[in-house]
Amino acid sequence: MVEEVDRVFVAVDPTEEARHRLAAALAEWNRGQPLPGRPVPPGNWHLTLRFLGWVETWIYERFLSELDKAALGPPFRVSVEGIGAFPGPRRARVLWVGVGEGRERLVSLAAVTERAAVAAGLQPEERPFRPHLTLSRFRPDQDVTPLVERESPPPIRFPVEELVVYRSILGRGGARYEPLERLPLT
């Protein structure tokens, strides 16, 4: 249950096995060095479908109601592959791994969550959806061109069987994510 106002997002989680395999592949890819910037801990890795932001309880309940009515479709497989940066490698704020297999389904699920968010009274998302898993953040911006141009680690595949609605709790040690709802794909 969302408190009076909470910071909320909807995501797809990698399996624990996929997290371990991706962490090992990234360590080998980066020659045993930690990723630059502020790396996201593997336990926080996810593929965000829609960031709702700070929402009040009634908006959250309305959003869930809309999402419950939506056809989410059956489970599918995703592969995370290819390294990139937002907004670009020369002035990166985010280092990410992209999505290959399952990309179209993630785009479809993002559209479903977007429709539910707008129907609940939230503003439409202005940026186009680009499925990715955030690996590291930079402040100030950093040139990560050598990393992005390096051969990427091998793809890591995992099943997607549910969407998870999270509460993001900000703190001194970084964000902590608490699952609020799990919506199975059927």
Description:
This protein has helices at 16-29, 57-69, 103-119, 145-149; strands at 5-12, 38-39, 47-56, 76-86, 92-99, 132-142, 156-160, 162-169, 176-184. With 186 residues, the chain is of the alpha+beta class. It has a domain at 5-78 and 103-129 and 160-184: Cyclic phosphodiesterase (Cyclic Phosphodiesterase, Chain: A). It starts with a strand and ends with a strand. Helix 2 (57-69) crosses helix 3 (103-119).
CATH class of the domain at 5-78 and 103-129 and 160-184: Alpha Beta
Strand content: 35-45%
Strand order of the largest sheet: 2-6-5-4-7
Looking at CATH, which topology of the domain at 5-78 and 103-129 and 160-184 would you report?
Cyclic Phosphodiesterase, Chain: A
Topology:
Layout lengths: L4 E8 L3 H14 L8 E2 L7 E10 H13 L6 E11 L5 E8 L3 H17 L12 E11 L2 H5 L6 E5 L1 E8 L6 E9 L2
Antiparallel strand pairs: 1-3, 1-8, 2-6, 4-5, 4-7, 5-6, 8-9
Helix pairs in contact: 2-3
Keywords:
186 residues; alpha+beta; 5-stranded antiparallel beta sheet; 4 helices; globular
Describe the structure concisely for a colleague.
Helix content is 26%, strand content 39%.
